[in-house]
Amino acid sequence: MDLQQSVRTISKEILRDVIRIRRHLHMYPELSFEEQKTSAFVCAELDALNIPYQANVGGYGVVATIYGNNPKAKLIALRADMDALPITEVSTLDYASKNQGVMHACGHDVHTASLLGTARIVQQLKDHWSGQIRLLFQPAEERMPGGAIKMIEQGVLENPRPAAVIGQHVHPEFEVGTVGFRSGAMMASADEIYIDVLGKGGHGALPHNTIDPVVIASHIIIQLQNLVSRVNNPILPSVLTIGKIESVGGSTNVIPNAVRLQGTFRTFDEQWRNRAHRMIEDVARSTAMSFGATVEVHIIKGYPALYSDPNLTEALRAKAIDYLGPARVQEMPIRMTAEDFAYYALERPACFYRLGTANKNKGITSPVHTNTFDIDEDVLALSTGLMAWLAIGR
User: Fold this and answer.
1) Are residues 234 and 377 in the same domain?
2) Tens digit of pLDDT for each residue in 111-131?
């Protein structure tokens, strides 16, 4: 039999059912670490396919296994995340979120539906490929510490160890029908920064009687930018953003006692990452001290940088070109966004690729993490078939 043609045929045959799954998940999104109903829905779909699984792994994660005709051959793991974001959807579509304030604005409904579709393809063709396919339905990608590390701690990459871990993610910057690969550095590490500037409040008309934490905080922000523009090696991408400034008290005529800064630091170099953490604290303390104030600095180390294994990625890129044609397989640029798929890549050879979901002619162009995000659902035939081919194709 022509295995690739069989994958194509089944992916088209199941498209309507995969759309049904995606729309159900989109209507009933759940936040990180709260994916109980989503997990139960995934389990019910696996039951219908007679695929064995283990539930409640690393929280509400689900791990399923499909056995080919030679189960002792290599194992490939396929991952999809399941959680949603605290965003109120703006949509008139029938399948818009019914959970107020929660939305699949990052496409995890697409990832989960696609993996269930891939499972159906691989299950139907299990007599025509060798080895095992492990399906990782992962909770809590959107919130640290993330579901990937918790699933890894519970052994999802053991007994046996996967030869490769593959993940895909929606990418509205690409038109539907195209995918993007990148070998090596792909997505940045992500750390959270919290700086409390502790001064002395007072009347806004009498600043000489105060130690103004608002002014001091502004100086700290400017000084921190020098770490990226003048200390960091410019060939190493790095971002330091303070995204929130909040006074503790304060008004038009009141200088507060304290100001809290919240931000993120992102890079690809682990040595620079650790050095920058120390320098962030040093800059904040020395700047505050020069004004007679003090600071409390708390840095939460988040996801590591994501590296796609070059050998695996190039092999999968070749398979994608074979499946889609060279014009539909693009080179992905480095992104300063982060993904906890990076934890899998620290343990095993891994590849994370992007799935074009936009359709300008249909007006489907909104970025991820926005309240109008949606996809061209035609992508669900490609997403299921391509992942199946990457896993079992010869």
Assistant:
1) no
2) 999 999 999 999 999 999 999
| Domain end residue (candidates: 255, 275, 300) | 300
What's the whole-number mean pLDDT along residues 90-95? 96
Computed from CA positions of residues 196, 197, 198, 202, in that sequence, does the dihedral angle turn out positive or negative?
negative
83 given a catalytic annotation: yes
Total number of domains constituting the chain: 2
Rounded to the nearest 10 degrees, the angle between the axes of helix 15-27 and helix 36-48 is 160
User: Do 99 and 242 belong to one domain?
Assistant: no
Residues 36 and 75 in one domain: yes
Report pLDDT for 394. 81
What one-character-per-residue DSSP string does 52-111 give? -EEEEETTTEEEEEEE-SSTTS-EEEEEEE--BBS------STTS--STT-B-TTSHHHH
CATH code assigned at 207: 3.30.70.360
* Angstrom distance (rounded) from CA 164 to CA 232: 33
Going by C-alpha positions, the residue among 171, 177, 128 that lies closest to residue 332 is 171
Q: Is 281 marked active-site?
A: no
> Among residues 141, 309, 376, 377, which one is catalytic?
141
CATH number at residue 63: 3.40.630.10
What type of residue sits at position 204?
Answer: G
Query: At residue 1, does pLDDT exceed 90?
Result: no
Final residue in a domain of this structure, among 251, 270, 300: 300
Rounded to an integer, what distance in angstroms lies between the CA atom of residue 220 and that of residue 156? 43
From the candidates 30, 81, 83, 212, which is the catalytic residue? 83
Q: What is the pLDDT of residues 42-62, one digit of tens each?
A: 999 999 999 999 999 999 999
Q: Are 180 and 199 found together in one domain?
A: no
Domain match, 140 and 196 both: no
**DSSP one-letter code for 162:** P
- Which has the closest alpha carbon to 169: 302, 80, 105? 80
What pLDDT sits at residue 201?
97
Q: What are 144-188's pLDDT values in tens digits?
A: 999 999 999 999 999 999 999 999 999 999 999 999 999 999 999
pTM, whole model, 2 decimals? 0.94
CB 152 within 8 Å of CB 74 = no
Q: Which residues span the domain enclosing 267?
A: 191-300
Q: Say if residue 286 is in the same domain as residue 197.
A: yes
